[in-house]
Design brief:
alpha+beta; three-stranded mixed sheet; 4 helices; single chain; about 300 residues
Length: about 300
């Protein structure tokens, strides 16, 4: 006797039907497999986007930290040197502090991107000598400006080989400083290589050289105009805006404040003088020098 066969013939077609063991599971159908693959693909794409976004955020944060480190070191250096600026008084003139902001012409626009400090050199110390009765020398100056060869660099210039005198009140002071910056004797120290550079656009095309986004401002309290024509000891003299109200019948405490704004890149540049980057952030700082003003 033959047992009942699982082979069934129905309407001329042969259909095989395998009996399943109790508790066993069947395989995935084609539709289920396609759905699983689609879900897996979506997850892979989503995870890839998360990884890419995380890497971008990390690079941006790292760039900000690098820029912050450079700007902190740069501002600390400028602040220290401004606080040590020397003072001189010659020919019976009022005392003059060795601080000045020089403008440069960029495509017919004057920009105040150069700070000159009379420090005695890179090591400073000229302020320890009190009020001097001679003019400063060029080799005792430090100049903070944009690198003429690469607008992305903020540099500190010294001119140790030029021992000629210079008067901060001279009408030729600005032109002398501009010439010194481009001279072969200038020795530069790099403070930052992340300065944002701007390019002048004319009729849709770059025109002229890029310029670093650096701006200095000098503020005197009391101002030169307020001091002009005011005699010591008078009520007008005593009513001037002396810092902390410190003034006597013969002298007054004067403040020279240097304000600066510098735009720093948060991303590494890809080419020399690569301008028009959208990743820059502005940083602001200030430094002050106080001295006794005696007309």
């Amino acid at each position: 006797m033959f047992s009942e066969s699982p082979l069934l013939i129905e309407l001329g077609r042969v259909r095989f039907c395998a009996e399943r063991a109790p508790g066993s599971r069947g395989g995935l159908t084609l539709v289920e497999l396609l759905m699983a693959m689609a879900i897996s693909s979506i997850l892979v794409v989503a995870l890839g986007g998360i990884v890419t976004a995380t890497q971008s955020a990390w690079k941006h944060t790292q760039g900000i930290e690098d820029s912050q480190a450079q700007i902190t070191a740069t501002f600390d250096r400028i602040k220290m040197m401004v606080s040590q600026a020397g003072i001189y008084q010659v020919s019976g003139q009022p005392p003059q502090v060795g601080l000045a902001v020089v403008t440069n012409s960029w495509n017919s626009i004057d920009i105040a991107n150069t700070l000159v400090v009379w420090t005695g050199g890179r090591n400073g110390g000229i302020s320890d000598q009190g009020t001097l009765t001679r003019l400063p020398k060029i080799n005792e100056l430090l100049i903070y400006t944009s690198d003429p060869d690469d607008a992305h660099n903020l540099i500190e210039l010294a001119l140790p080989d030029i021992d000629s005198s210079i008067d901060f009140n001279s009408s030729s002071f600005n032109s002398t400083i501009r010439s010194a910056i481009s001279s072969n004797s200038a020795e530069s120290a790099l403070l930052s290589n992340r300065i944002k550079a701007s390019q002048f656009i004319l009729s849709g095309n770059p025109w002229g050289t890029p310029v670093g986004n650096i701006r200095f401002e000098i503020v005197k309290t009391p101002s030169d105009s307020n001091l002009s024509g005011v005699s010591p000891g008078t009520s007008a003299w005593m009513n001037l805006s002396w810092p902390q109200g410190t003034a006597s019948a013969t002298s007054g405490l004067r403040q020279i404040r240097i304000n600066y704004e510098i735009q720093f890149e948060t991303a590494e540049r890809t080419a020399l003088n690569d301008a028009n980057s959208p990743t820059a952030l502005p940083f602001f700082g200030s430094s002050s020098r106080y001295y006794a003003y005696v007309p």
